[in-house]
Amino acid sequence: MKRLNGDAITIVQEIKKWRSSLANEKGVPEKLVTEIIQAVKRDGDVALRAFTKRFDQVDSPSFRVSEKEMEQALNRIDEKLLIALQKAKENIWCYHERQKRQSYIDAEQPGVIRGQLIRPLEVVGVYVPGGTASYPSSVLMNVIPAKIAGVKRIILVTPPHKEGVNPAVLAAATIAGVDEVYCVGGAQAIAALAYGTASIPKVDKIVGPGNEYVALAKRAVYGIVDIDMHAGPSEIIVVADETANPAFIAADLLSQAEHDTKSMAVCVTTSRDIANELEEQLISQIEHLPRKEIAKQALEQYGAIIVVPTVQAAIDVANELSPEHLELHVQDPIQYLHAVKHAGSIFLGPYTPEALGDYMAGPNHVLPTSGTARFSSPLSVDDFIKKSSFLSYSKDALQEVNEAICLIAETEGLHAHAQAITIRFQEEEEKEDGKALQTYPYYK
Amino acid sequence: MKRLNGDAITIVQEIKKWRSSLANEKGVPEKLVTEIIQAVKRDGDVALRAFTKRFDQVDSPSFRVSEKEMEQALNRIDEKLLIALQKAKENIWCYHERQKRQSYIDAEQPGVIRGQLIRPLEVVGVYVPGGTASYPSSVLMNVIPAKIAGVKRIILVTPPHKEGVNPAVLAAATIAGVDEVYCVGGAQAIAALAYGTASIPKVDKIVGPGNEYVALAKRAVYGIVDIDMHAGPSEIIVVADETANPAFIAADLLSQAEHDTKSMAVCVTTSRDIANELEEQLISQIEHLPRKEIAKQALEQYGAIIVVPTVQAAIDVANELSPEHLELHVQDPIQYLHAVKHAGSIFLGPYTPEALGDYMAGPNHVLPTSGTARFSSPLSVDDFIKKSSFLSYSKDALQEVNEAICLIAETEGLHAHAQAITIRFQEEEEKEDGKALQTYPYYK
């Protein structure tokens, strides 16, 4: 854990350098990912089966998990866990339901009807990583907003294992209302969702976290389908005044640090005492963690304690870094909400740890990382809808704007645009004159 | 103009092939674009000035257009054009204002406050192409939604010309409320907006159309800043029954075709007579267009007339292709709104030509192309805001979900997450027992 001193601007620059060094790390053979995608696009299931055998050492006649297996998963997990996941679903549902939007129509002008239709995406694919851990919470967070949006068909893909899909993941899928689960993973799963194969349906959008192969494949198929934002390493900034409890802060920084050796955990405090106690707390608390080595590496590389003169100065540092998670351990924290300009999710007060938001409280845990909270947002119902505008003009209403449109079209040198308006009125005049429909001099 | 016969599926496949052949065309030296971006990032204004001299043959001491020049532009254009642009602004503003969203708060459970903040982006850059034509309508369409969102600083960049910026573009910028205009173009302008230089401010998002250099540069800086969607060649599908007026349809197809030799213009009709008359109309109307050669090439390559048995079958073809613009020249068109699943903008009836929407009616003309209307939306106020979630739990409220969170955290193997909750209660128990704060056994 670094103790950063000096002025806030220098410190912010220093931390931004860590980030960009992370962004420049490249470990994945792009060529291999391209080859995988091309093969699946061309050969469908045959390629999918071959890559699954090669990368996952699994050779199964079918990718699909049966509906029976999905239902049975509910009985295969601890009943208390089942209730916990159901409670989480309820909270996530209730929070996201307020994001649902209505189509609108504006019929205020005579002869003019215009509006915006809100429609759910038709088919969505959710990627759930396999590997050592299983993430039922990720299933809930990615699937529930899509359900609320009204997506009719939600496909979950996850890498196969010889022992079958993790029952907690399957149970979460069933609870969230996933329609179909397929055991395919990696770049080949992304390619299958983007182009469709005989057994995997083509989707409109792919969401969910994954390793670098998955991330690269998603970027490659973007445009063919939509994708969610790229998730960088997870981040937290804790802002603390002298009333904060350093033991709580240490626990929260560690919950961030245990994710990944690249996780960023920073505390900005107005109190030297808090800074000192926090360091002690980190040292004592980290010892008992099963993922101690990961957390240690993360804190050594991307952990920092910064002392600044005021809470506002601390929030200025946070705004500059625009973190994924921001905790405010200060007196009357809601009074500072206006001052927070850029953060994915804001946690107010000593009893609102990030872990509460990760699992249970309701707001989404898929958040903008690496400073992108300046312009990106948490995953929401908006990510699973699309909009279409519609327009209807009467003849009279069109005639009223005829000249104005032609003037702009002429300015832009697009005469056929002007003609598309004038022809609708010239035709009649010419007919009345008994002339044939022959030429349509455009607007001069 | 091709006459496509046969079953709808084969026809749709055929048209999709045209599209993907377009998507695979690559003409831009990616390496050069990367070099330009790196140089501007490193050397700022010095590089910017050098590239402007090299690519635009302009060597100016300052990039900035003075505020005086911006105001004067209003007097330099025809008064009728000024009124037309102001009328367009009014309509665009009125249509988009309904897209504005409110932050929400949910304080329904004791001890729990949660919600979502809606905030405007702080700084937005709008690219306006130079070249032979000027596009004041594009300025209005890109800037007004940002203004409504509440963006405080809107920067417009456009390639320099020896004669200065086109007065219609400058007037539109002033009318729309652009804050600053800079004469820089190409990949170097995008790099300047993404990284900032001494004279050009760094922005949070870049929108607006551009040539292939601009498109490639935007994609390269995505992540550093946000960008709008990539606009492919423009497209229209007209669905027509036997009541349609072929002269109107021909004019609308031509207004699409004159944009670009790669524009797609397709009519799907239930009437062989309409198909025949449409062909005649196209032949006669095209003759009088200044951009005849462009329109001819577009129609020859990417134009088609398709005859199908029913209006529903025609709409099915449109849905499969998910066009940017869809016109319904059928009886009682609003009855078919439910059947249209994927289209950027829908134009209903004979007096609602696409050109009306391009300039005047209010809905945005920045629309999803190349079939991306399946998952993308017209440019809107949503594109200039970001969301943050916030959360506050009381101690009691947290204690109630303590066990549930720990169960999920343990399932996911993230014990520091569980500890972040339990420490908030164990501490007290231990204090009460008179024990020192030493170890925090995580949830078992």
Automatic annotation (TrEMBL), chains A, B:
Q: Look up the record and report any one GO term of the cellular component aspect.
A: cytosol
Q: How does the cofactor bind to this protein, according to its record?
A: Binds 1 zinc ion per subunit.
EC supergroup of this enzyme: oxidoreductase
GO MF annotations in UniProt:
histidinol dehydrogenase activity; NAD binding; zinc ion binding
Metabolic or biological pathway: Amino-acid biosynthesis; L-histidine biosynthesis; L-histidine from 5-phospho-alpha-D-ribose 1-diphosphate: step 9/9
Listed EC numbers? 1.1.1.23
Binding-site positions, Zn(2+):
256, 259, 358, 417
Residues that coordinate or bind NAD(+): 127, 188, 211
Q: Which InterPro entries does this one have?
A: Ald_DH/histidinol_DH, Histidinol_DH_CS, Histidinol_DH_monofunct, Hstdl_DH
Annotated residues that bind substrate are located at 234, 256, 259, 325, 358, 412, 417
Keyword check for NAD: yes
Record-linked Pfam families:
Histidinol_dh (PF00815)
Catalyses: L-histidinol + 2 NAD(+) + H2O = L-histidine + 2 NADH + 3 H(+)
- Which cofactors is this protein said to need? Zn(2+)
List the catalytic residues: 324 (proton acceptor), 325 (proton acceptor)
Under the heading PROSITE patterns, the entry gives: HISOL_DEHYDROGENASE
Which family is it part of? Belongs to the histidinol dehydrogenase family.
Report the function annotation for this chain.
Answer: Catalyzes the sequential NAD-dependent oxidations of L-histidinol to L-histidinaldehyde and then to L-histidine.
Q: Which PANTHER family match?
A: HISTIDINE BIOSYNTHESIS TRIFUNCTIONAL PROTEIN, HISTIDINOL DEHYDROGENASE HDH
Its recorded name reads Histidinol dehydrogenase
Q: What species does this protein belong to?
A: Priestia taiwanensis
Give the gene that encodes this protein.
hisD
